[in-house]
Amino acid sequence: MKIIMHFELIKKYYKTVWIVFTILLLFIVLDLFFPLPKQKEFSKEIHAKDGTLLTAYLTSDDKWRLRTQLEEVSPELIKAILEKEDSWFYWHFGINPVSIVRALYRNITTGEVESGASTITMQVARMLEPKKRTYINKFVEMFRAIQLEIKYSKREILELYLSLLPFGGNIEGVKSASYIYFNSPPGKLSLSQSIMLAVIPNDPNSLRLDRRNTVTDATYVIPGNEATRESEKKLKLSDSRQAGMTAITENLIKVKRDYWIKKFNKENIFSSSDLKDALDEPIEENRFAIPVVAPHFSYYVKNDFQGDIINTTLDLSIQQTTENILLRNVKKVFYKGITNGAVLIIDNKNSSVVGYCGSADFYDEGSFGQVNGITAIRSPGSTLKAALYAYAFDEGNLTPQMKLADIPTDFHGYQPENYDLKFYGNVSTDFALVNSLNIPAVKLLEQTGLNNFIGFLEGAGFNQIQKQKNKLGLSVILGGCGTNLQELTRLFTAFARKGKLYPLNFISTENESRGEQIFSEASSYLIAKILSGINRSDIADLSNYSKLPKFAWKTGTSYGKRDAWAIGFNPNYTIGVWMGNFNGVGSPNLSGAEVAVPLLFDLFNAIDYNSDVKWFDVPEELYVREVCSESGLIPTQYCRSVTRDFAIKNKSNNEVCNIHKPVYVNLNETIQYCTGCLPTSGYKKVVYPIYQPELTVWLTQNKHGYHIPPQHNPNCDAKFTEAGPKILSPSEDYEYFLESPQNSENQEILLLAASDSRVKTHYWYINDKFFRKCKPGERIFFNPKEKELKITCLDDKGRDRSIRINVKYY
Ligand SMILES: [Zn+2]
Ligand SMILES: [Zn+2]
Question: ∠21-24-27 over CA atoms, to 5°?
């Protein structure tokens, strides 16, 4: 019984079911064969952290087509557009049957094809795929509209519509139009402006706001969009005259705007007082440029990140402050031949870029303002020293109070000098770092191993160094390599983030990735402590900075005074500063301390002004120990005084002081004895500091007043088994270029050798012929006559050392 009932029912509605089924099938087949056209390309937009549009770029078809999101648009504009174009938008499925029937009737009675019935969805279909207006194309549009309604939400369709509306010329979408015509984001439009934006797409070429189109014909019929065209046709100039306008010279857009204001007023769409204000608002002919804020940053982000709307981490207020301070500082030093600078500011909370100035003035072509000084490859000067010292702390061979020798040294032919051309002798590690001494740094790099350190830098994201690595030498640590402000500043964020290096974050939605531990927290803390001291020779005049927050910084000046660097950090920010010339010309006045440090101070003072910066906590792995104040090593019974030093648990070595040793001397300390020549009476045991021979020589020559042991007993004939004299000059690593032997009278080569304190005479031999004798450390010169030379130094204990050098002539 039941089955029969069902059968009867199906039979009854058989036709309807069949029709619905066929239509559905037809739609599915059509949809399969005629999928929706591809979405249009939108302009790339770059936004600051607070959503402000920094800049946008033309699409590849040269359009300003900014993708519009509903939240960005003033509600008045959306309301005006919906009321005007498609008031049933939220209720229909792409097609509005009522208006189709109405339009069809009108077409039949008037014989016009174009009129009416296009929903917003259908208009979107037409904007995506422009076609001639024919009946067939109208059906295509309807089909497309249904496809759109199936594929997209109402919100997405409306956003597409707002984004694609034509506004004259290459301006598409209400957002583009809002910026270009009103210099305003679409959320801050007045009612008058909103209504104009709802109206212009009807006839963008006549109504566009960057050209004056006036009504000249008294019978001019205002063109309308399809849905509203019929009623608008009735609007003649008489209407605008009634509104008190002089129609002959009136701007077309004003006529249109006022018509709609009155219509909305009649329909009570907006409050009448708002509409009256809108009517009184003057209309200005204008075309503004799309904003260009932080151009270097925007360009960098545009090329590095996908998507048409890129929400970045840039802090607009920090950016503007930074731009002003940078420009002011560059102007201050312009007369010294320094024409540009760059600043990168990182928020240490999440390594996000909050300030980014690639040059002082992007539009200053004379100073190559369009070059991005943040990504430009330059020599880093001494800035990498901070990383080397941190690396060495972690290796365990160095602590802040250990002593390093700052004396003239030959590194296989490389003889670096200090920035001030002075040498400081026996200095502590922290002094060497703060004062950026060159010899200790090169020596430290040699001990650490060049390849180890370069490998470390590669791992820390130094790309140019990676490319150059086979060509790099010990001079890397003094700037003999290429890097950029971005890599350097990022490196310094690791000191501020417990030794962890994170990728720089440009995009606000980027997830915090896990950092890589490149330094220990302890060694980062030590670097921060050493570099934040205020007793520094490179400090600016502090009287201008009463509320300056605490921070640590390292300076750098490249070879030839081409680049001045200062990179600073505290728990809040890491700020990298570069100054110089983009054409690569150096300036004698350029130095990190004199030029870059004042800028860095200004920036910290402005951006982190008076902040209650809580300094880094002392890491647990760090402890304080007593060390010999003269060597920085664990004191022995012979050390005369001790001081406190930091050391890293399970890392820092426990080497005991090796310079304080007891020495046998006669009673007035003028003669030294060894166990071989110790007399039976008349001697005592005195503790002297015994330095390595080179340092002893330098300290003696430079009269540093060191308490040095007296000369060894001249009558001693004990055998010495240790190494002989150390030849400091000449060096086997050099080729000596001289003028031709005929006029080589004044060309001399230095002979210099060091020995321990027991040696009192050196004997020099050249090609096995005796040349001269002298005291250890005494500088004597000889005039080479042959091309190949064997140079031998013999000491009074019978130990000798030889080297071979080549002399070439020009
Ligand atoms: Zn000692
Ligand atoms: Zn002796």
Answer: 150
